[in-house]
Design a protein that fits this description.
The chain is of the alpha+beta class. The chain is built from seven helices and nine strands. The longest helix has 13 residues. 16% of the residues are buried.
């Protein structure tokens, strides 16, 4: 027999609180486990009292895949008995055992965003978020119109359903406490793109109609963003500090006139005159 709930126990209990006939039945408990035929009976861990007539002996379970689990053997002995008998044998997870998560019904495992195209998700039976359409919803604007026209849907949001939605929207991404809202210059309630909801929720929620902001999302009246309809650029934003530079224009720079270069006199000496000059220099 196996159970999945972790248990804890005292490894060294005070044996004087357990009747000797129960505390000394450790070998009886081990033999019962061996006779069970499951195997994996490890070291003895200790004994704990269940009541005056019963105690539980525990052993390490040396079974593949059951690290941290324990064998628990309950022995019993009436007040006038001089020997104990086996009452129950069970395999239990210890404090460090690896156990599966707590089982949840399928309808409780679904999370927001799990629904895909083509999926069908009916509401839970007796869903507290819904009430029949002929039952008063608690919203005066809805109830008055429904009674007056005699029309309505088969089911409408209950007061609990509306409160759940309001709390979820208030605490969500588009609520007043989001980082975007804290840094916004104003609130959605004062924005020209804000489309209020109908009914009692209109006091606190609407839909954003700005395609550059939270377009199509339900937003709180105190939510806000930088795309508010009254947003203005700071004074002087975009004004050039200097004249624009036209890189397609040519700059023409006038140059100062320069003085003409001096003429160089070219002196030509014939070859025979050069020879005569050399002869004169050698005679001297």
């Amino acid at each position: 027999m196996r159970q999945n709930e972790p248990v804890s126990f005292a490894s060294f209990p005070e044996l004087d609180q357990i009747r000797p006939v129960l505390a000394e039945a450790a070998e009886l408990a081990r033999r019962a486990l061996i006779d069970l035929g499951e195997g994996g009976v490890g070291d003895y861990l200790g004994v704990t009292a269940e009541d005056d007539n019963a105690a539980t002996h525990r052993f390490i379970a040396d079974l593949p895949g059951y690290r941290g689990w324990q064998w628990a053997v309950v022995v019993a002995a009436p007040a006038d008995a001089d020997s104990a008998t086996i009452s129950e044998l069970v395999l239990l997870p210890g404090p460090d055992a690896l156990v599966p998560p707590t089982w949840l019904p399928w309808d409780e495992r679904i999370r927001p965003g799990d629904l895909g195209p083509g999926d069908r998700l009916p509401p839970r039976a007796h869903d507290p978020r819904l009430v029949p359409g002929y039952v008063a919803t608690g919203d005066p604007q809805v109830d008055d119109v429904a009674y007056e026209l005699g029309l309505g849907r088969p089911q409408v949001p209950s007061r609990e359903g509306r409160l759940d939605a309001a709390e979820r929207w208030h605490d969500g991404e588009f609520g007043p406490n989001s980082e975007m809202a804290k840094a916004a210059p104003s609130t959605c309630g004062l924005c020209g793109f804000y489309l209020p909801l109908a009914g009692s929720l209109s006091a606190a929620f609407g839909v954003c109609g700005n395609e550059y902001a939270a377009d199509g999302h339900v937003v709180h009246v105190q939510y806000g963003c930088g795309a508010h309809s009254d947003t203005e650029l700071p004074t002087g934003a975009g004004s050039p500090a200097y004249d624009p530079f036209d890189d397609a224009a040519l700059d023409v720079t006038a140059q100062a006139p320069t003085a003409p270069a001096p003429e160089v006199e070219n002196t030509f000496v014939p070859d025979h005159a050069s020879e005569t000059l050399q002869d004169a220099q050698s005679d001297s």
